């Protein structure tokens, strides 16, 4: 260990008395360790008026300055940081000294660097006439102001010149914080400083003549604001909520609490320590959790058995956490926040039925919920460790039953989904199992209480008769004689133990074509069955019949009958269109294409045969040409005069026997000019071949009379 080397930065011994430390900045070599009561260096403070009530304060509590100015260590200190600050105050003055602690390889060039102004303190070169040593000012100083904080010295005197100070805090915002006595060089602060607002000021000082011309400088004057412990720790990231699984091992980390202190992070003013002030509730242990004083990590400290959510007074704990600066010392400032810790549930309790056996009664033929099965589960109702899942593990071969969970009550709702038949089985026994949505933890298993039996009694009811088969189908030819038998239906009563009789009746007969014998169920016709009727869809006529038993009250069954009607040739073909127009001077004498249709089905329809009735007169006026099985074309053999003509055309279908229909085609011969057809006068010139034939026939008959 080498004794500290003290390097003089600025000394004013040969100048007039300046209140404050006679040397403000020191450099010492960092030892392996500062030993207890070791003299580090000797400080000299003089307020120029006797140093009455002189007091020293050191930034590091491991050091102290004695009355004679000796800086000594209070204990063995291996790490003191990069600098120490000593604040001195008497009745007349106060000042700050700064001691920089250098590594061995830094000391060699320290003096050289100071003289070259290559440090961060703005120390002037030796040749400069202005000596502006750094100024250290504690924040939060109390009035009166202005307060002398330092002095700038000019080695060549101040006669005929004056000092001028500039920079942020003087003539730049925030303006007016510092000022300098133009003649003496005394630097004063005019108000309280706040390090958290501005920690450092870089000013410039120069010497000017009477007309303001710079004589010397400018040189930098650094003013540093020394931190005071004036900011409480604050928790800014709340709300703070942590989760820990029940049964967790001792030492499980739950969450981290971090506070913020606006003071200087390099000092104890922002060195935080954490502590739990209060725990609510205090059971099963008043000390369920521990907080790491330095990191702020909250961990469990109780055995896993005490972290049992189901036995706790509440699964939610609230911790009042305190953060204290000054490393947790009594003089430190504090801030508090509340940490909420939730004990999360794990599936360590299987669901259990409240009864070993449940009873249910249901009427045959009815579906729906028949019984609610209740279970108990000590786990958290908001989790899958509580929600139940039911299953039928025996007694349901026909899948007549289903069970679902009521999401509000967690009960099992047992339902009949396929109607039960009393005559087949009057009793059913089901074995039901309940589990949780979440799997149980490995050392827990489902026990006998997780299964239950349901005894179901089926009540007999009067069921309606049943048609066999249903629906019923039969094929008949249309136009069969009235009174023909269509079908004899068969209905039976499911209530085989009641020995009831059955009667039949017509329920729905849209066309009114049918009747049924009430005793034996024989269905007959009361009208002609017409396949072309609008009541027939896709050749099928549908009617409904009832079978009614003799119970009290009687029960009814409904049967459906589908009659497929076979076609017979009972509809003559029809011709379309029945009106055509042509110009009296038309070059194209193909007048119209005619089509034929038939309501019957093939082979009682096409191919159709088209024919013209016999034409009168010496000349034939038109002919008809067949185009295909369903269409023909009427062609004029010559142009006709403007008039109306009725042309009889017969159409014959292909049925056996065939049916023929004769239709008159009305042909209008019109005058056509400039693409306009005028048929207005044709009615007056109407010539009917039919009338001509009748007239000729009348004359012929008279000649023989």
TrEMBL record:
This is Cadherin-13. Cadherins are calcium-dependent cell adhesion proteins. They preferentially interact with themselves in a homophilic manner in connecting cells; cadherins may thus contribute to the sorting of heterogeneous cell types. May act as a negative regulator of neural cell growth. It is found in: Cell membrane; Cytoplasm. It comes from the Eukaryota. The keyword Nucleotide-binding does not apply. Transmembrane segments: none annotated. The gene is Cdh13. GO terms for cellular component: adherens junction; catenin complex; cell surface; cytoplasm; side of membrane. Keywords: Calcium, Cell adhesion, Cell membrane, Cleavage on pair of basic residues, Cytoplasm, Glycoprotein, GPI-anchor, Lipoprotein, Membrane, Metal-binding, Repeat, Signal. One of its GO terms (molecular function) is beta-catenin binding. It holds the Pfam family Cadherin_pro. InterPro entries: Cadherin, Cadherin-like_dom, Cadherin-like_sf, Cadherin_CS, Cadherin_pro_dom.
